[in-house]
Amino acid sequence: MTDPPALPATDRARQILAAARALLEHEGPDALTMRRLAGCVGITAPSLYKHFPDKSSVVDALADAMLRETAGVLEAAESAAPGSFPALAAAYRAHALAHPHLYRLTTGRPLPQDLEEDAAAPLLRALAGDESRARAAWAFAHGMVVMELNGRFPTDSDIAAAWTAGIAAFASVRL
């Protein structure tokens, strides 16, 4: 099982990270400024730098938390339905759609290799250790989530049917 999300070292740093996440999740990435963040926790913007050297370190900590959460969600799905790609895909989709701004922030940038590997480990196991299929399945799930979050499907589309068709293709085809 993957370790829980890493927490910053101090109570204040954890408070800052929680406020950053709340700003991001409720108002989107444009709201995540050091000035707004400082106001949320009742300190001056320069005081934030005692805990995080810059905004990118706050973003890194948020992305780290999202990847660890994703790993935990996928591990839980695997435990509930061992070897089930459909269960993993459903868990991935649900978690991403529940945190759209955090998902975009995390996946729209280079990711720490070890955390991404932890998150993808249940997928690799479900696809019998086939790394190429696992990468393709990860790309399928990511692409579908991004299209769904960005409203890229026609309004009359059956998105659930598209997910089901893609999942079935990965779950049944052995190359």
Can you characterise this structure?
- The chain is an all-alpha fold and 175 residues long.
- It has a single domain, classed as Tetracycline Repressor, domain 2 (Orthogonal Bundle), CATH 1.10.357.10.
- It contains nine helices and no strands.
- It has helices spanning 11-27, 34-41, 45-48, 55-80, 85-98, 100-107, 113-126, 131-149, 159-172.
- The chain starts with 10 loop residues before the first helix and ends with a helix.
- The model is unreliable at 1-5 (pLDDT under 50).
Enter the CATH topology name.
Answer: Tetracycline Repressor, domain 2
Q: What structural category do the secondary elements indicate?
A: mainly alpha
What about the largest sheet?
A: none
If helices are DSSP runs of H or I spanning 4 or more residues, what is the number of helices? 9
Provide the CATH superfamily: Tetracycline Repressor, domain 2
What's the CATH class, please? Mainly Alpha
CATH architecture: Orthogonal Bundle
Can you describe this structure in just a few lines?
The chain has 175 residues and is mainly α. The chain is 71% helix and 0% strand.
Spell out the key features of this protein.
single chain, 175 residues, mainly alpha, Tetracycline Repressor, domain 2, elongated
What's the helix and strand layout?
Elements (H helix, E strand, L loop, with lengths): L10 H17 L6 H8 L3 H4 L6 H26 L4 H14 L1 H8 L5 H14 L4 H19 L9 H14 L3
Helix pairs in contact: 1-2, 4-5, 4-6, 4-7, 5-8, 8-9
